[in-house]
Structures are given as structure tokens and as C-alpha cells.
Design brief:
Elements (H helix, E strand, L loop, with lengths): L1 E4 L10 E4 L9 E11 L1 H7 L9 E6 L3 E9 L11 E5 L5 E3 L5 E5 L3 E3 L6 H5 L2 H14 L7 E4 L5 H12 L3 E6 L4 H6 L3 E4 L4 H8 L4 E6 L4 H7 L2 E9 L11 E2 L6 H12 L7 E6 L3 H9 L6 E5 L9
Parallel strand pairs: 4-7, 10-11, 10-13, 11-12, 13-14, 14-15, 16-17
Antiparallel strand pairs: 1-2, 3-5, 3-8, 3-17, 5-6, 6-9
Helix pairs in contact: 3-4
Length: 315
């Protein structure tokens, strides 16, 4: 099968397009024909070796953790899906090896849910990693509830744009940091935009004089320091970007595959409460360009790699 892979850590230039072996399908897995795979910052961070201390690389590595596609074959212990089912998945292994930037991926059933029927494959590919990150932080960690005020950093980005919508669905008032060019986009999601950077604390206090009930940090660094000082009494803080959040009394979270949470995101999408903005798509062979664009860090919504090929013969 065709895939993108890299045989060593490095920049986008280490990504190559070519033939690799089709993955084996274990008893608890399904073979998914990949129609689209979203690009996430973790993809290029893995490619450059930043996650080497926690995720061993078995070279050559096929990058990508997000997928939307169609089930081709199922393992013997998988009654949940059948060939032809359209699915989405957060396909993260405990090491770096067989990712989703390929024509096919073997996905454990615990990583999958049914694809939202009202979304295209490209849109649906943007849900798993970013959506699970947003949902798990807002629902499980911060426990955001109706009537609360939530500050979401990088509210126009992949995680942030979904977090704004999920928090709104939970009944919260959402303040979202974004560049001025993305203010209208944040408003369209149901948030109240504020420009990030110098003077952020004063701008947020102008909207929430008594402080915010919860902060969802996706940036880290200075934004995290400012956020800790914007909390109301008993306010909660969580970060997916900076483990130093614990020194401010908050919690750090690394997203986990969870089929129940992923199914809930599918339900929200089908109810019209969650939509995915795809800023740009690239064919599989141009995945390096997709990595470069994502690494610039100014993407509105999601960047997606698309895969077009014929289905394999049944064996």
C-alpha cells in the first residue's frame, strides 16, 4: 500500500511517499480504508523526536493518529463493526509505528466510533484527537457546567474551536483568545473573542470582572501564568500544552482513546452542536506540505490529508 513514512527524526524533508506493507489485523482490530487523516501538532513533534522520551519509534514510522474511513475487514473478536461501516478513530499506539497517513490502517476497536453521518470524511477526520482532547478536559477534568464562564486559549485552532462549541453546548459562557482576524470565526462558534498577547489579563477582566470559573489552556508558557491569575475563587485550570500547570494547582492532560467519548462527539456533530472547519486539504503524497503548514501554528480549524485509492481484494 501507499503511505507516508520517515526512517529518522527530522524536518518535513524526512517524510517520503512510497510502498509499505499492509498492516496485519489482530483479533481486536479492524482494517480501515483511510479516506482522510487530520494533521495535528503532535505529528510533527513526534517526527522531530520531541516525544522520544515517552514514545519509542519503530522505524520506519507512518505518522498520523486521526482517521476517517471505511471498515474493510474485522478481527475475530470485533462484533461492533462490519465491512462497509464508516468510522472515525484516534489510532494511537503505545509506540510510534503504524499511523494513519496511509491507504489503510489497522485500528483497535477501542479507538473507533461511527462517523457522523452529516459530515464529510474530511470534516470527520478533524474530530478524534482534537475533539477528544476538548471533551475530556471540559467534561471529565474541569467539569464545566451551565452558567459558568470558561476561558479557552487559541479558540480558533483545531482543539480550541471544538472546545468553544463543546463548552457552549454544556451551557457555559465562553471567552476565547484569538488573533483579530479570527474574531468573527470565534463568534460564529458561540464564543466571545479577545486578542491574545500583551494586555490579555485586562481584556479578560473587562469581560469577567469576578474571574473565570475554568481555563482550558492549549498554549502554555506565559498564557498559563496569566490564566492562573484570572481564576475566580474555586476556579479550575487544565492544560494540554504545559505540564507546569500543576505548579499553579491545575491538571495536565494527554488525550486518551475512548470509544464512549468518541461516540458522544459523533452524537454532538449529528445534533448540529459540533462542526469542524477544514482550512485546507492536501493529497497524501503532499503530506510534508501539510506538516509545514501545521507547524506554522496559525491554522484556523483543521488541516487534513486526503487519500484516494481502490479498495483491496478480499482475502
Amino acid at each position: 500500500m501507499k503511505a507516508i513514512s520517515y526512517a529518522e527524526y527530522g524536518g518535513p524533508e524526512v517524510l517520503t511517499y512510497g510502498e509499505v506493507d499492509e498492516p496485519r489485523v489482530g483479533p481486536d482490530s479492524v482494517l480501515v480504508r483511510v479516506r482522510a487523516a487530520a494533521v495535528n501538532p503532535v505529528d510533527w513533534k513526534c517526527r522531530e523526536g520531541y516525544l522520544d522520551p515517552v514514545l519509542q519509534a519503530v522505524f520506519p514510522v507512518v505518522p498520523g493518529w486521526d482517521v476517517s474511513g471505511e471498515v474493510v475487514r474485522t478481527g475475530g473478536a470485533v462484533p461492533e463493526f462490519a465491512p462497509g461501516d464508516e468510522v472515525i478513530g484516534y489510532v494511537r499506539e503505545d509506540f510510534l509505528s503504524r499511523g494513519t497517513f496511509a491507504e489503510y490502517v489497522a485500528a483497535p476497536v477501542r479507538a473507533l466510533a461511527r462517523k457522523p453521518r452529516n459530515l464529510s470524511f474530511e470534516e470527520a477526520a478533524g474530530i478524534p484527537l482534537a475533539g477528544l482532547t476538548a471533551y475530556q478536559v471540559l467534561h471529565h477534568i474541569l467539569g464545566v457546567g451551565r452558567g459558568e464562564t470558561v476561558l479557552v486559549h487559541a479558540a480558533a485552532g483545531g482543539v480550541g474551536s471544538l472546545a468553544v462549541q463543546i463548552a457552549v453546548h454544556l451551557g457555559a459562557r465562553v471567552i476565547g483568545t484569538a488573533s483579530e482576524r479570527n474574531h468573527d470565526f470565534v463568534r460564529s462558534l458561540g464564543g466571545e473573542p479577545v486578542t491574545y498577547g500583551e494586555g490579555l489579563a485586562e481584556r479578560v477582566r473587562g469581560l469577567a470582572p469576578e474571574g473565570v470559573d475554568a481555563v482550558f489552556d492549549t498554549v502554555g508558557g506565559d498564557a498559563l501564568k496569566v490564566s492562573a491569575n484570572l481564576l475566580a475563587p474555586e476556579g479550575r485550570l487544565a492544560s494540554v500544552a504545559d505540564a507546569d500547570v500543576v505548579s499553579y494547582g491545575g491538571r495536565y492532560h494527554f488525550v486518551r482513546p475512548d470509544p464512549q467519548d468518541l461516540t458522544r462527539l459523533t452524537e454532538l456533530a449529528e445534533q448540529g452542536a459540533l462542526r469542524v472547519h477544514v482550512s485546507e486539504t492536501f493529497p497524501l503524497e503532499r503530506a510534508a506540505d501539510a506538516h509545514r503548514l501545521n507547524q506554522e501554528g496559525r491554522t484556523r480549524g483543521k488541516i487534513v490529508v486526503t487519500v484516494a485509492q481502490e479498495a483491496p481484494e478480499e482475502t
